[in-house]
Design a protein that fits this description.
This protein is of the alpha+beta class. The protein has helices spanning 31-41, 60-69, 134-149, 184-187, 209-217, 235-242, 296-336, 368-372, 395-401, 403-412, 459-472, 489-494, 499-505, 514-523, and strands at 15-18, 21-25, 82-87, 97-110, 113-125, 155-157, 170-175, 179-181, 199-203, 227-231, 258-265, 270-279, 283-290, 359-361, 386-391, 421-426, 438-444, 447-453, 479-483, 510-511, 528-530. It folds into three domains: 9-152, 3-Layer(aba) Sandwich (Aminopeptidase), CATH 3.40.630.30; 179-376, Aminopeptidase (3-Layer(aba) Sandwich); 392-528, SCP2 sterol-binding domain (Nonspecific Lipid-transfer Protein, Chain A, 2-Layer Sandwich). The strands form four sheets. Strands 1, 2, 3, 4, 5, 10 and 21 form a seven-stranded mixed beta sheet that branches. The chain has a six-stranded mixed beta sheet with strand order 8-14-13-12-11-9, sandwiched between helices. The chain has a five-stranded mixed beta sheet with strand order 18-17-16-19-20. The two termini are 22 Å apart.
């Protein structure tokens, strides 16, 4: 069972870091100050066109997101889970929060093992305080220790190129960019005159949560059968997106950008599946699941037609929300005579809502809808999937946690089922969280009995060990060995690359022999990932 988010007493601590600055954990009272900081820090990440000669407005969607996260009504975190740097000497009217990093807790799975992944999020620092190591301190002294305190053996984050490598992250989880279909008027067949939709969408409500939970509990239904690492779509997940996110105290249009609908067969009078899409400066199709025996070819176009209609309504609502905010900020500027020009959101600048001309398919790569519609997709560049930063602070702890999944893989193997042996992995240097530059895993009868930090012996030590075994007339132990450039083993653990691919990618990576490589392929096969990035 995935545990609930708790608020340990030790997080009442305030850390004095000098110059009037202190680090502490948040409360709901910090919501507006943190929102202001995040909105300002992400100005240049705002949607829409940005004039070259004008400072972009604050990132309104992220500001709304922060308010939701700190409201105490978020699926991912509590109002106490933002690590903050506060300027205790801030002048009256000045935002005292100058740096921040949230810690999310995401119910997830690795093979058959259920666990919570940690996810640092919404990290920001005021421009006047950058390059002073504040984010580094938040990550190393607050976010990571708290994540590990909760038992997270893995953290992941989408983020600035290269930046998070300094905190022990490696690109190891994939997040497909999605295929795009434009020219929707031509690519989605229209109803004949007088024809009615047989399969209709209705917005999901709280009473539908058990149905959504049941249908998504089977990975085959979402065509995630090749997926070995991913997000758990449990009752809490669906309750959040069909009910909780719409509740006060903080409601904005952006809290409603993701829509879950039930698909109903009007002819048979029964529900036959569900659909999930998001509108945020464009239409993204996230999930499409049908009951067994329902043909996708019959349902797909009715769902697409109605989904586009809903997205157009959302685009209009988004536009009206943006325009109202723009007007409020204009009036506020005129009242305060602010010196900064262009202080408004840039999501919707035109006088009319944006048109829905494209669908981005974020469905599983194995989903038959992609194959059914393959001839209608826009040409795409030959590029790899986007990768997410991934941190495994303690390889031995991770192996111990996921041991049931590894043992299940061994049991299915005709080569290594029931094996008793030792796997030794050398990483050249100690990395954060390890006491030695390597890892040793001991198997007995196909079970993981020990995982521990390990140091590669010298040639002299190897000779001495052999001599001792001969004197004692002990049998030669079965040992498999490999070596990987620091942190690249994380890619193998997550199944984003095979051992062979890692060997080809870097000459420092190597295996002792073909049998060692085969064992690594069995334990850590290349797999699909299904990570929901925006559980806000």
């Amino acid at each position: 069972m995935v545990h609930e988010i708790t608020v340990p007493k030790h997080r009442q601590q305030v850390i004095d870091i000098g110059d009037g600055l202190c680090m502490r954990w948040s409360t709901s009272a910090d919501a507006e100050n943190v929102a202001e900081l995040v909105g300002d820090a992400f100005r240049f990440s705002s949607f829409g066109e940005k004039p070259d000669d004008e400072l972009p407005g604050k990132h309104v969607p992220l500001m709304c997101c922060v308010r939701r996260l700190l409201s105490g009504h978020s699926l991912a975190m509590s109002e106490y889970d933002y690590a903050l740097v506060e300027n205790t000497l801030a002048a009256p009217g000045e935002n005292p929060i100058i740096a921040c990093a949230a810690l999310h807790e995401i119910p997830s799975y690795y093979g058959c093992v259920m666990m919570n992944f940690g996810k640092p999020e919404q990290i920001a620092c005021h421009r006047n305080y950058r390059n002073r190591g504040l984010v580094r301190r938040l990550m190393k002294e607050m976010i990571h220790p708290e994540s590990e305190y909760r038992g997270h053996v893995i953290q992941f984050i989408p983020g600035i190129d290269y930046f998070y490598r300094q905190f022990g992250y490696e690109y190891a989880l994939s997040s497909p960019d999605g295929r795009e279909m434009s020219d929707l008027d031509s690519n989605i067949p229209k109803l004949e005159d007088g024809e009615q939709e047989r399969y209709k969408l209705r917005e999901a409500i709280l009473d539908d949560v058990p149905y959504l939970t049941r249908l998504s509990a089977n990975k085959e239904t979402l065509f995630l059968h090749k997926t070995a690492v991913g997000t758990v779509y449990d009752e809490r997940y669906w309750r959040h997106f069909v009910h909780d996110i719409y509740q006060p105290p903080h409601i904005s249009w952006y809290d409603k950008s993701r829509t879950v609908t039930i698909i109903r067969d009007e002819k048979k009078g029964r529900d036959i599946g569900f659909n999930q899409h998001v509108y945020m400066n464009g239409l993204g199709w996230q999930k499409f699941a049908l009951e067994e025996g329902v043909a996708i070819r019959d349902v797909i176009y009715p769902v697409m037609r109605q989904m586009v209609v809903l997205a157009k309504k959302q685009a209009k609502a988004c536009h009206e929300y943006e325009m109202s905010k723009k007007e409020e900020e204009k009036e506020e500027k005129e009242g305060k005579n602010t010196a900064i020009e262009g202080e408004h959101s840039t999501l919707c600048e035109s006088e009319s809502p944006p048109e829905i001309t494209t669908i981005t398919f974020e469905l599983s790569q194995e989903h038959p809808a992609l194959e059914f519609l393959s001839s209608k997709f826009d040409p795409t560049p030959d590029e790899p999937d986007a990768m997410l930063y991934t941190r495994i602070n303690d390889y031995a702890a991770f192996i111990t946690k996921v041991a049931p999944a590894l043992e299940e893989r061994l049991a299915r193997s005709r080569t290594f089922a029931g094996i008793s042996a030792t796997l030794q992995l050398h990483f050249f240097k100690k990395v954060e969280g390890m006491n030695a530059p390597g890892l040793q895993v001991v198997f007995e009868n196909g079970k993981v009995v020990k995982a521990q930090d390990w140091k590669k012996p010298t040639p002299e030590q190897n000779v001495e060990a052999v001599c001792k075994r001969k004197v004692a007339k002990l049998p030669e132990p079965k040992v498999f060995q490999a070596q990987f450039y620091p942190l690249m083993f994380t890619q193998l653990l997550m199944g984003s690359r095979s051992a062979r691919e890692l060997i080809w990618a870097n000459s420092d990576n190597a295996v002792q022999d073909s049998e060692s490589r085969l064992l690594l392929d069995v334990l850590f096969p290349k797999v699909e990932h299904d990570i929901d990035l925006l559980i806000w």
